[in-house]
# Entry
Amino acid sequence: MNLDEITKVLIEIYNEPLINENPRHIVFWYDSEGEFIEDIDNINIQNVKTLKLTQNNYFKTRYILEKEDKTSNILIYANMSKPSPREDWLLDVLKYSIEFSTDKTTVTMRDLNIKDKSLTPIIKNYSKFFNNKERYSAFKKIRYI
# Structure
């Protein structure tokens, strides 16, 4: 799977002007299906640190954000569903941050330039087909008449 599209969108987010006197951008990415768990290490954006949020490191993440590193742009990746507000230890940080979301189906459709949203269930249903790099490349080369 080509991660160029995700990286491009994230770079655009980090290049937006800062508002409300924030010294940096913090982006939360909740990947409830865990579709990008293997790919997150391959997303490298200049001047952005990636933190992996788990069920067991909320306190450490908060400590990093509020004590250790108060100026760096941060991407917080969580391969879980977004917690309910009552259970979210980082809710206050999320309120002044940006929430990013995508899934492999959306990325595939963007990459193949498929704009018809009615095709989303079909692309999702054939995710195993699109996860194979050789088939994906061959399919991408097909031009519509």
Observations:
- The chain has seven helices and four strands.
- The helical segments are 4-15, 58-68, 91-95, 104-111, 120-125, 127-131, 133-141.
